[in-house]
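Lab notebook: predicted structure, single chain.

Context: the supervisor wants predicted structures on file for every construct in the current expression panel, including those that have not yet been purified. This is the next one on the list. No modifications to the sequence; it matches the entry in the shared construct table.
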Amino acid sequence: MIEELVKRYPVLESVKGQIENAYKILETCYENGGKLLIAGNGGSAADSDHIVGELMKGFVKRRPVSTELAEALKQADPERGEELAKKLQGGLPAIALTNHTALSSAFANDVDGMLSYAQQVNGYGKAGDVFLGISTSGNSENVMYAAVTAKAKGLKVVGLTGKTGGKLAKLADVAIIVPEQETYKIQELHLPIYHALCLMLEDRFYAE
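Prediction complete. Output recorded below exactly as produced.
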């Protein structure tokens, strides 16, 4: 899938190794029952939510629930369980830290809005999880606070950036630094990268 990605976007040839390394970190996380926490600002906040949508339900595969869960659902409620068994899909746990308005606004009002992502990493994050920080410059301070908190709690940190990679690239376990300088061009390359990562994870954890 990485080869196909680079064929479609030749400019990403220089970051093939980083994409593969980011995938391996995510694969290990999910193999061990972990979850992915994601944060960014503006368009990168939208990307955070987009990634959750691809991981938490079927992307290109149907992802039926296991036979065991299907039977348990039917035993819990024969009518609703039958419907749930047919329609529920397998999900790879992922949380966009960008969507919790009540929490973020309360923390901003009571403490410090710059640390709202860090607060969520502190609350949700466990050793073995992964924090994905998306920042076109690599210097978004709220993302950096979250990344530092993640490292302190034993999470792996993946950075999805551009330009020089900024501060995030120096802190991250893996930094995918797309070779562009302008924000919109960087964001245009982020999308096919995270689509490829989501496709690879789905292929790894779900049969047809």
